[in-house]
Amino acid sequence: MKRQTYRIIVICLMVLAAAAFIYLVRSLLAPFVIAVLLAYLIYPLVRTLESRGVSRVNAILTVYAAGIILAGIFLLLVVPAMFNETRTFENILPVYSNAWMEAQSYLNRLSERVLLPSEGRQILLDMSMRIRSGLYERLRSFAEGLLGLIGLLPSFLLAPFIAYYMIKDFEHFKKRLLAMLPSESRSYLINFLLEADLIFSKFLRGHVLVSLIVGFLTGLGAALIGLQFYLLIGIFTALADLIPFFGPFIAAFPVVGLALVESRTKGILMLLVFLVVQQIEGSFLVPRLLGDRMGLHPLAVVLVLLVGGYYFGALGMIFAVPVTCLLRVGVQALWDRLIGLAS
Question: What's the number of CA atoms in the CB half-sphere (13 Å) around residue 112?
């Protein structure tokens, strides 16, 4: 019993030391974080090839070769057009700003015709100014953020090499980790990891795929109606769709507003595109790619989204739900462990 207690204490100290080390070198961890995500995403593909008699190394290299081909197509066809749209978008923002001012003047004239009190007109004026400045800053930040991805290029280039060794020696790492734990604690850790894998597989392999399809369909719809910046619209919609509940509204409001600036017809058509894509997502994509919900009440989802957004911004809203589900599973596993020890 004393030996088991000693091992638990040592493991806890090692975890704390590892956490402190990670905090100290957090600015250097970008390639490792990207590598973990990459390894997690492609590991099922590697296992599928292994089940058909392909060796682990050849399976990894095959998946990498397919990924390089797809990345090459993306770099040659999509990235140049995307950055051209970003530069054009930054230059044309003042035009949209002037169009918004004209729309605001029209609303002021309309409020005078309906005999709206001066206080009401001032409230509408202040609200429209806040919306205009907020949209301008958000869209400008989004465009600058896309250009800022260039700074992560070294991390993206290094991540596949790190992910290769993570996948290649995964079983070795797993055995070493389990060997460090007391035998009676291994089943709890395995169950926890299985639940965590279920949660993040739904998010990374399911929700991300749904968001990519939604972004592609929205960008395609914007291109078909002749809207400018359809690539940026698709990317922005895909990123916003990662946020549960609020994502479609976050995407639709500025995009439809930009479409209305070009013409009223394009604005109405863009709104119809969003409505049709949301119907496809809710009726077809989510039931087939995500399945059941993650076990959180809708009110709890709204609460964790607000908390994540308040403390960590857009990334906090994106990862709030899976992290909360993971914490719930961890607390439940710890509680079951304590109950088991007490009994």
Answer: 6
